[in-house]
């Protein structure tokens, strides 16, 4: 399973959107160099408030560009980086990957998938009603999160738009993604 990086984004400040960059550098065990969410322990404000010693399972946020077309059908305009992601991809089913999948991005970087992004109300602050487009329920009433996946950096490297993304599934049994 493979795809392509269409954009990379980072911000050194707590902002909802992240500006696109020509490249970002991933640092093993920390995340995106210069990004406010980089670190060994949690950096997301709500998680820091609960327990600042928790391991940071959300070092890198990846989102599939195909989501932007889906929400556009409902009248929303979203571009890469605007939902706070670090890596925007195309052609790879990020939401269908199991926990522990290794994503080889570009020539060096490796990100291990830890789970689904659990989007918050800030999305409605960005565009009113968008949260309902990225979080919903399936026919059985289960919550379905579509706002991307989270991971930790296993091997550092610099990534650029146009780089390939190759998924390497973990040994079985495979565990479906859950929120992190």
Automatic annotation (TrEMBL):
InterPro entries assigned to the protein according to its UniProt record, in alphabetical order: MoCF_Sase_C, MOSC_domain, Pyrv_Knase-like_insert_dom_sf
User: Which sequence ranges are marked TM in the entry?
Assistant: none
Question: Residue limits of the MOSC domain?
Answer: 18-168
Q: Which PROSITE patterns match?
A: MOSC
Which SUPFAM superfamilies does the entry link to? PK beta-barrel domain-like
Chain intervals for the UniProt region annotation (Disordered): 161-180
Q: What is this protein called?
A: MOSC domain-containing protein
